[in-house]
Each structure stands twice: as C-alpha cells, then as structure tokens.
Design brief:
The structure is a single chain. The chain has helices at 39-53, 66-78, 91-100, 115-123, and strands spanning 13-20, 59-62, 83-85, 105-110, 138-145, 148-156. With 157 residues, the protein is of the alpha/beta class. It has a single domain (13-156), classed as Phosphoglycerate mutase-like (Rossmann fold, 3-Layer(aba) Sandwich). A 6-stranded mixed beta sheet has the order 3-2-4-1-5-6, with helices on both faces. The radius of gyration is 15 Å and the shape is globular.
Length: 157
C-alpha cells in the first residue's frame, strides 16, 4: 500500500506533524457521517494551535471531514494558510506531494486508523498501531533531512 515512495525527494530538511482529529460530537443530534468537534474537541484544537504554533507550519492537510478540518483550522487561520484536502485512501499520493513540496513544515490531520499508518509509511517502519477510539492526545513530529528520517517525537496535548 505504501510502496510507491521511491520518488526523488528534495535535499532539504522537513518537519511533518501528524495529528488525529480532536474529540467529535457523538450526540444524537450530530451528523453520524460527518460530526463536528464537540466542546472538548474545540478546546483541544486551540491547544494544538498553541503547542504547534511555535513550529510555524507552512502547509496544512486534512481529510474532507469537519472534525479533521476543524482540528487544524485554528492554527492554519492564525498562520494565514488554507487547509488543503487529501484522500486518506491514497496515502502514497499525500506523502509524495508533501515530500515534493518546498514547504519545510507541514501539518497533516487524519483519523485513528490513518495517522499511525502515515507515520509508519513516512518512517518506513511498522511501529505505530491504530489509535483507540478514545485516544486524542498524540502528535507525531517526524523530522527528515535529505529524504531520510532523522528523528521521531511523540507529543501529548
């Protein structure tokens, strides 16, 4: 699934920040197919903006769901950037796009069953497992130099 990563990568340093969307509204009034963030999720999105703002990301990617867009929109807005959409069923295309782009610091928002897989694909190691449905606190910082992973950090927020 992630085998198409043999693309030429620019000789530059890059920081890829991966995050699962914040808490979603699971009330009976929420759209079950595309729920927004609940109050706790909105607070977490603000904490994400505060914690990650210091890295000055220059690009933001999200799946086309309210909860993922709304998790990164506060920081994207603060940075004067638009959130770009990607298809979570095509992770190789997203990774190639991010690696080929000149932007050095990128945020990617996804889901409990997509973000760990992206981290595995970028690091070319199968270390991260899908997140539990109640797990919202992890941020991955993946640093690359000349296309090679130099450091992976996990942050709580």
């Amino acid at each position: 699934m992630f085998g198409a990563l043999a693309v030429a990568t620019p000789a530059q340093s890059k920081l890829i920040i991966l995050v699962r969307h914040a808490e979603k509204d699971i009330s009976e009034n929420a759209d079950p197919n595309d729920p927004p963030l609940n109050a706790a999720g909105q607070e977490r999105a603000q904490r994400f903006a505060q914690k990650i703002g210091k890295y000055r990301p220059g690009a933001f990617y999200s799946t086309d769901f309210k909860r993922t867009r709304d998790t990164v929109t506060p920081l994207a807005t603060k940075r004067g950037k638009q959130v770009q959409l990607y298809d979570p069923r095509k992770p190789s295309e997203l990774i190639e796009r991010v690696l080929a782009d000149k932007t050095k610091r990128v945020v990617i928002a996804g889901h409990s069953n997509t973000i760990p897989g992206l981290a595995n694909a970028i690091t070319k190691k199968t270390v991260f497992r899908n997140l539990d449905e109640s797990e919202y606190t992890v941020i991955w910082l993946i640093r690359l130099k000349e296309g090679k992973v130099t450091k992976v950090e996990l942050l709580d927020y």
